[in-house]
Amino acid sequence: MSDSTAYNFPFTVLDPQHQETGAPAFANGLVWAVHAVPGQELRTLGSAEVEALLAPGRPLENEGWYWLHFDTVHSSARGYVAHLPDLPEDVCAMLAETEYGIALEAFEDLIWGALPAFDDALSEEDREICAWRFAMRPDLLITTRRNPIPVLGAAYRSLRPDQIPRTPAGIIDRALREFTGTVRRQLGHLDDELDRAEDVLLLIEHRSDLGHLGSIVGKVRRRATELRRVVTPIDRVLKDEDLDLPDWAEDELRDRAERQVHAALDDLIALQDRARSLQDELGSNQAEETNRRLYIVSVGTTLMLPATFVTGFFGMNTGGMFLAQGSLGTVEAGIVCFVFMSVTFLFMKVARLL
């Protein structure tokens, strides 16, 4: 499911006071703005509260935390996000970026970065990988995305009173766990594909039917490579010794998220090793089948070589050719061809060429 709302205004958050009139009160790409307090229902923020929340010098919130989620597909939304007043300039520029990239940085109580996610394609096999960005403090989380990101929608819908995390880092942890869960589900499907290919490879009787197995193994290896290119950078940034996360985010990002990502990476490496071994075995069987066919052709060519010589000899248009007279000349020439082929066959048997 997408993280988009059901509003008719694609780049608008509606102030609760304007819900009946349908008039937009805040049109800067904001998809949702909520205040989350553990044990309480989510509270939607009005436009005045959002503006006050983003004002410089705002005091730290003592109860709960806020989440602002922006859609940056529109240039006006990117322009607004790029100049948020309460964040450093480089962090705002990162939030407004639309290119794919993975990063995680921290300075004092501020954490920002870009993480991967799957888009909202109906089939998991067809989902493309895109990026979403975030910046957070202990009481504020700001996320941006260019494409609908199901993991953010799932994290938003999970914010029931008894499941609201203590800090915004819990949302990042949930999004990463949802992403790695999707990766591992895809790995399970790819593993099933390899199971079917392996069963066919073990039970097949006619080696000429191996062609379609190559496409199955190739598809598995391509998708596994794509996923590994995404998961490996996440594992690398989470293990970066130079990354000094604040204490309030250490447990969620450094411990739980890192374990989930590393487990998914281990499964990926195991799947790639299995696919590579299966492809090597498939290549070996195909090479064996090719050699068997070439052997048959070579044997047939060798057996026919004496007969070819005999027919070529009798085919010369010269005078005095023996067997040219009489009604049994063709039969006698055929017998000569058969004798030479038999001698060749016996020679190949004695020489253990057959």
UniProtKB/TrEMBL annotation:
It is a multi-pass membrane protein. The chain crosses the membrane at residues 294-316, 322-348. Its main location: membrane. Signal peptide: none annotated. Residues 254-288 form a coiled coil. It is found in: Cell membrane. InterPro entries: CorA_cytoplasmic_dom, CorA_TM1_TM2, MgTranspt_CorA/ZnTranspt_ZntB. Keywords: Cell inner membrane, Cell membrane, Coiled coil, Ion transport, Membrane, Transmembrane, Transmembrane helix, Transport, Zinc. Belongs to the CorA metal ion transporter (MIT) (TC 1.A.35) family. This is Transporter.
